[in-house]
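Input.
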Amino acid sequence: MLIAVIGVNHRTAPLEVREKLSFPEYNITQWLTKLQALPGIDGCAILSTCNRTEIYIAPVELDTGMSSVWGFLAEKSGLDISDIKNYTFSHTLYDAIRHLFRVVAGLDSMILGETQILGQVKRTYEMALEANTSNVVLNTLFQQAITTGKRVRTETGIDQNPVSIPYAAVELAKQSLESLIGCSVLVIGAGEMSELTVVNLVANGVSSVIVSNRSHDRAVQLAEKFNGRAVKFDMLFHYMTQADIVISSTAASHYVIKSPDMKRVMEQRGNRNILMVDIAVPRDIDPEVDKIEGVTLYDVDDLQNVVDANLAERRKAAVVADGIIEEELDAFMCWLSTRFVVPTITALKKRAEEIKQRELSRAFNRLGDLDDREKKIIGSLANSIVNQLLHSPVVKLKKYAVTPEGHLYTEILQNLFNLEVEGQRTQNNSQLEPIRKKMISGSNCTDWHHVHTAKAMESGSKE
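Output.
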């Protein structure tokens, strides 16, 4: 069974194209059912997030399955197939598996090492199970991908270093205040950056949120999200006397907080320490404020320095993660290799059973009247002979399945016993000789699978 993926992400297509190719979770089951019913597809799963849509299939026949997916995406989006191909990527077997492992590890995300994608891949697998569109190959693929994602994060810590401005603001706040539990924050400005920063502050223990914005209605909307309160913009400095942390991110073209204003605030606070984080560009807070006793001020450059340092650490972790992915990839490919020999083993046992039953029937007819005990003894003898004869070939074939010569042993066995295996057919083809030589000179499961894929596709195999 082959594996393929066709997808679009933030690197291959603009937002307006990604939107047309996205699949809302509420009706993804219907789309999965429709996709699986198309020609050439045995199993399928759809990964759809804000930055990517990826369709994984276990095709009965590769070209037919891929064509079905292109047509499926065209119908969903209203775009021409040629346009879709310009904005999408496609991978098969080895490259498709590696791609999914990198995705789930966070190595293919806009933010290197982000953790949300692990849950999204897990949900993708769950929805395919719920829709009954997965199969044994995709089940094992997604299970091992999820395990790989967890292993990467556990062994590398790739997700431990914040690489966004809001996260960096929280990290600096924790360094400055040691603990954020029970702290209060005053948010100046009600835009996206302010909201993301508050989300992370609250997640780290901040218990009180006050929002001040020139548009009071917008301040009310943001405050309600955190069970906080909104205050008028002209009351800003009054409430600053109560806050432990000030986050400022407005669109003002001038300083919102000037040094003389802050000196008065600190006098009213009794010089009790305050942390101020200025995320705005241009800056909201006069840099002279940092010279006031009790004030610690960070601006966007300070935050960016944290992001850059943490990103460097994530890149180091990504190198280790790639090594883990290669290990998991080889393990999966070896498992997939053994699956190829299963139909041959099944056919061999079936042929042996047919011969045994035919010869037993002939023997019983020649021997005449036999009681049940005598028939049972003869039947047990026949079973024992067949099982002992098959034991070694079956064990050896499973062992050889994960070697470069695995396909050759399978083909030889099929020819020796004249086995008919559904979806596989043996043939003497001079064009395959270079591939056979490469198989014999190969060294690992990965090499074998590149070769096996070439043979399977050339011979029209459904395996």
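The beta strands are 4-9, 41-48, 52-59, 89-92, 184-188, 208-212, 229-231, 245-248, 274-278, 295-298.
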